[in-house]
């Protein structure tokens, strides 16, 4: 599976699109925004650049990226006004993989400019936007060119499906039935990828610059705990049912694994310390309910999973099974959420680029 081509959120603005099914992600951004606001305030007060360069990594195609940027720019402007300084120019880089629907995102920039003027008044400095297609597991920007990097719900995606998962049969992610070799393979891939991510960002961010990253994670040190694996397990149930009915080949299921890792706070902090380019300023853990953002919670929780994962499922299993697998998944989610209240665990870390 070539993730650079395959991994992208559901494009467009239709009923199944990520743009219309990313309320969960917006809730997560809102709950973590105090960390980002504090980081960019401290950054501006210490560096005070004439042109503030912000990168949003894993921007996707929905409204959330510009929701984040509006909060960051408004906060920076307020800090500037308190210091009695001239408002800086703002340069914003929106990054995602080449398969991302950048056009849908770019169409919302005019609305962003209107919202910024309404919030801050006329006379705000120019805000320039640029799209940057490419993997954040490689270099994206020139040396020492960025002041602030933000990423939400992106860095838990790995650069590839970990090698060595041949025995993780009938699972699509880590689970209690996964062999120990599979758990080690997932963790090793996370260690490699996150270290590379930090190394490249360290080259791109100025000394004293800030980075805030929010990802799915877990409180437990057990990588198979329900708090981080449950959502994928319900999709695996739908797939196993279809295998038992002969609708999907068993070999297809056995060879499919989700390229994601949800670390514990200890694992995340350890990698930051090992890489050595950043100092951790804050590391917080918080939960959000699966149905945190709409009245029709269970169905919307299922639609969110589809918007995030459909491209990978279609690439591996073929587009012909998509409607049926997600119909079954929706029924499973509705049933489970009528009996329990599952939550996503999230980690947000704020870092400073050390000298």
TrEMBL record:
Which keywords does this Swiss-Prot/TrEMBL entry list? Answer: Magnesium, Metal-binding, Methyltransferase, Transferase
Output this protein's name. Answer: Salicylate carboxymethyltransferase
Keyword Lyase applies: no
Q: Name one GO biological process term.
A: methylation
Among the GO molecular function terms of this UniProt record, one is: metal ion binding
Extract the InterPro entries matched here: MeTrfase_7, MeTrfase_capping, SAM-dependent_MTases_sf
- Give the organism, scientific name: Vitis rotundifolia (Muscadine grape)
